[in-house]
Amino acid sequence: MKKIILFLTFMACWACQSESKKIQFSGVEIDKVIQEMTEMMIHDVSNPPLAMRFFSYACLAGYQVMTEADSSLNAFQYKFNGYPTFTKDKPKEAPEFTAMLAMMEVAQKMQPSGNRMKEFEARYIDSCRKIGLSDQVIETSTQKAQAVAKGILAYAKADGYNKLSNFPKYTPKKTAGSWYSTPPGYFPAVEPYFYRIRSFSLDTNKIEEIPAPAPYSESNSSTFYALSKAVYKANKSEENLKIAAFWDCNPFALNDQGHLLIGMKKISPGAHWMGIAGIASAKKQVKFGESLAIRTALATSLMDAFWLCWREKYHSHRIRPETAIRKLIDPTWKPFLQTPPFPEYPSGHSTVSTTAAIVLTHFFGSNFAYTDTVEKRYGIDDRSFTSFESAAEEASISRFYGGIHYMDGIEAGQTQGRILGKHFLTLMQHEN
Fold first, then answer.
1. Full DSSP string of 113-133
2. For residue 193, what is the DSSP state?
């Protein structure tokens, strides 16, 4: 009888081991959730800072699972402001599968079109079952994923975003040189109080500030007038316009067709960089745990980049080139890109892209060449880059080519991105 029991025990252990070996989860799996989240954000017209908030908490849920399962991973999330404690109940089987489920659980609870993610999750579980994942592993993984998601969702709720609607409606300043909404949509200001929520890594008493923007002036001998004239006279070569279109990433863009304004399918700048991280991870064949570490570091650092950028945008309230140029230079002028609905200074693309380049360079190296195919599904041609830094430089200058930012706003955004990126890497490199 003892021999039979031992034999059955051996067979059970062998079955578990063979199942674990048979089902391999690569970092490419993470792209499935990221891409589905991106499609949901396009559907919901999620604004750029809010989109990054969604990515951040979803990635945190998955990474929390992985850092509990693999002690070799850098659990940098525990250094975040107000980060909760977890039981650290290590997943017994398929931690990668559990991490995926945790990401989906958070995404479906936070995003407006969450039912779509719920359906996606059901299909994903079914696909894993078909390739051999047992019902027992699925059940225990689901329970663990839901427990972690519950903790992350509570952490998300505590950041204060749900209280922003209690603030008074943003009213554009009446002073000369202040921002107000632009055509064709004349959208109200986006997330004027985003900087009031809890950031992940920033101490508001220790933030290095960027220089103030050049003051508004209608004198044709002023610095501001020269900045405006430079946008007006910017080289509209075919290549420059192609660069502007490639990095547009404006979810509020509208196609003006007679009496109709039709929304165009575009992702946010943060979603674009999350896609780039997926391309780089696949090229380098990064393992699942490290790949999720990269996505989590990128998502959370970019949310802090938006926090910092939006803090200054709604401090300076600076007028956009479209408005200034029409008043000071040419009343018929239109920018190549549609102006996003928030103040100009600093450039959000410059802040976010520079931060992303610093974080991704940390993981992949300074001369990591890749081809960006993120928006190919939306009809945007590929572009190749020799490094993340060169991509960030192009993303930054694209806003000048597109006619929606002054050069000092772009340069200030790059400075702000370098400040945030270096700060975030310092936080990651400190011992837990």
1. THHHHHHHHHHHHHHHHHTT-
2. T
In angstroms, rounded to a whole number, what is the distance separating the alpha carbons of residues 310 and 344? 10
Provide DSSP, 126-189. HHHHHTT--HHHHHHHHHHHHHHHHHHHHHHHTTSGGGGGGSPPP----STTB----TTT-PPP
Query: What is the rounded CA–CA span in Å between residue 380 and residue 377?
Result: 7
Handedness of CA 366, 368, 369, 371 (dihedral sign): negative
Q: Token pair 């960027």 is at which residue?
A: 210
pLDDT digits (tens, 9 = 90+) for 265-324: 678 999 999 999 999 999 999 999 999 999 999 999 999 999 999 999 999 999 999 999
Give, as one character, the DSSP assignment of residue 355. Answer: H
Nearest residue to 274 (alpha-carbon basis) of 102, 160, 126, 103? 103
Q: How far apart are CA 189 and CA 169, in angstroms?
A: 9
d(CA 189, CA 323): 15
> Quick check: 243 and 345 in contact, CB under 8 A?
no
Who contacts 216 (Cβ-Cβ below 8 Å, separation ≥6)? 176, 177, 224, 318, 319, 324
Distance CA 397, CA 405 (A): 9
Residue with tokens 């009343």: 331
For Cα atoms 346, 340, 46, give the angle at the middle one, nearest 5 degrees: 105
Q: Report helix, strand and coil shares of the chain as percent, to nearest 5.
A: 60, 5, 35
Cβ(196)–Cβ(308) below 8 Å: no
Q: What angle do CA 19, 63, 49 make, to 5 degrees?
A: 135
pTM over 0.90: yes
Which phi and psi angles does 355 have, rounded to 5°?
Answer: -60, -45
